[in-house]
# Entry
Amino acid sequence: MKQIASRPTIFITVPLAPALMEQLSAQFDCLCGWTLQEELAAGRAWSEVRAVVTTGGVGASRQLLQALPAVELVACVGVGFDAIDLAYAREHGIAITTTPGVLDQCVADTALALLLAVFRRVVQADRFVRAGHWLHGGFPLTHSLAGKCCGIVGLGNIGRAIARRAEAFGMVLGYHGPRAKADVAYRYYPDLGAMAAEVDVLVLALPGGAATRHVVDGRVLDALGPDGVLINIARGSVVDQAALVERLLDGRLGGAGLDVFEHEPQVPEVLFGLDNVVLTPHMASATLETRAAMAQLMLDNLLAHFAGRPLLTPLPLV
Ligand code: 8YV
# Structure
């Protein structure tokens, strides 16, 4: 790889994969943000930093950006930009890049894995065999996916990849989002509550952030009802988690497959004892292949920026 003439300083917010850390240290002077938290809290500024490298989960807060007065770019390994202070970036002309396109398939796979795990009780069945219960009788019947209605909230690239997979499993598709899409035949529901009332499964694939906070509230969950299942591979913030937990505990909601939570890595412990819930640790994009592709795209954006070339996947900041 071509070396950049002078080594710009970058601020990395969290430890990244070792291969990526090596590539970054080969090209840049790296400040490791996770070792500088006390100094950051004490108000220290780093005027030599020209770019922040971060993840979708950690983002870049106003406090961090204010401590980096010369920052030009936030390069995110992830598609979610809800943890980046967009208003501050816009006001200060800071560019943002994310990694769209390269993670859609893996994230959609995870949505279907959770869906299958909840409907076919895969996790519970595995525990059943390991505990030796099969020797004393069969496992209870589960539910099929074919013929069930799947409502996707957010029909972007990831939502579409989920829809294609759900269709292949024989599910009937509907979707909700800000506007109907002209190029799909799935039924569009302008009202989320109305869709929740009609479908068997609600799959959340919408962006996080202030605009979508708690869009899945108690009312939507009640519409989904005791036979309904919620799958969330988006952001914990889009669901009123307290309302969700209450309904899973008392049976007002049928089940859930959750990869994301409101206060990660904290997961409400009351969910641990429930068989109708499958919990994964925000791992939808976490395969070696996809994380390598995300890392490469982030790096390509970073290198393009410092070489004065156009960014590959800039976030439009209007
Ligand atoms: C990653 C994500 O877990 O893309 C996102 O926004 O939440 C995930 O793909 C995260 O960005 C870590 O790199």
Notes: The chain has eleven helices and twelve strands.
